[in-house]
Structure formats: C-alpha cells, structure tokens
Amino acid sequence: MKYDVTLREIKCLMRMNEKYMSLRAVKAGQSGKVIPTTAAVNLEILDDYLKEIGNDDVLYYVDGESQAPEGIHTGDILLAHKIVHGSSCSLECGNFIVLRIAEHKLSDSTKDSNLKLRKFVKEFDLSTFDSPIDASIKEYLWEQLLCVDNYAKDSTQKNSFMSKLDIYLTECATFEGRDKVLVSVTYTSNGREYSFHPKTKLESIVRAFFDKDGEKHMLIED
Fold this sequence. Notes:
The protein is of the alpha+beta class.
C-alpha cells in the first residue's frame, strides 16, 4: 500500500518529468464497500500550488460521492494537515476530516481501505456522565449539538443522532474510551446522517481540495 505522500516526493517526481503519482484513497461512500487503496493522479494540476503545500501536509484521492452535497467528488484531491498521534488539535464545526476506520469494523477484503472522509460537527466528552447514559443526558447532548449544527432541525436528524449515539455507546465500552468523541456527518441515500468516532482515529484535517479541472477550493483559510 502507498501511504502518505510528502512534498519532497512530489517535487522529486516533477523534476524527473513524471506525470502521475499514486495517492492514498479516502473512502467517501458506502460503509464496507471495497475501494482501491491507491489511485494514479495527474500531478500537473498541482504545479501552480506546490509552494502552498507544507512539509506536514498530505494528499489523498477521493473515492465516493458521500460528500457531493458539499462539492467534493470522486477524483478530487484532498490537501490535508497530518495529525501526529497523541498531539492536541482543535476542530471547528464544518471542518472536513479524514478518519481511520476502527479495525474491528474492517473485514479482510476492506482492511486496506481504512480511511474515510467526514464533515466534523462537534466534540463531546462522554466520560463526564455516569454509565449508562440515560435518555435525559442524550437529550442534553442533542441540544448541545443544535447550538452549532444549523442543519439539525428535524426529527429525522435527531433520530439519526440518537441511533448512532446508542451504537457508539455500546461499541466504545469494548473498543474505545469516551473522553474525546467526534460527531460528524455524511450523506447517504437516506439523507444526512451522523456518526461518532473517538478522536484517536483522527488522521488529518482537510485544508483544501483540487477538483478534476485543477481548481483549488479552500476549506480552511491560512
């Protein structure tokens, strides 16, 4: 598998007049779907932006249409800031993030496709509540989410939040802690859906993306 591409590798290939580079793929689609682990992309679209790519940045190839309502499509290239494991970082509602999929959710056929793209909404510290978390606390968490998520207005959204929260609380008792939990959204055939992930699974924060025409779209202002 080809992992993170560095700025040095990109410049080296360009000096060698190599046109294509293999980038690590990020899943933006159906859970459990097998995708190629890498994809060859044309480096020429990055030529005008090399000076803006930092040494701590990484590039990914998008596979899937789950963030199409946000303008991100299959074939786009993500420019992201790599998060060093164990380091602290702050997120803002609306940030796009790359997450590592929990190992226990990967089958043998999907274990190499272990990154996914999500839109971050809010971080919770669930360790402050007694276990099990009762209905009143879940309602409180929903109200806190409403303070930052302008799109969470209907019963369908609330049902998605509560359902995914219940699943996470059941799973994290075995697999993960509850002190730093990220809530994010993706788009499916059923509409806008929430998901919960431990912050330890945060791989990178997306700064911008390049579309198939080579146009750069900033997601976080420098």
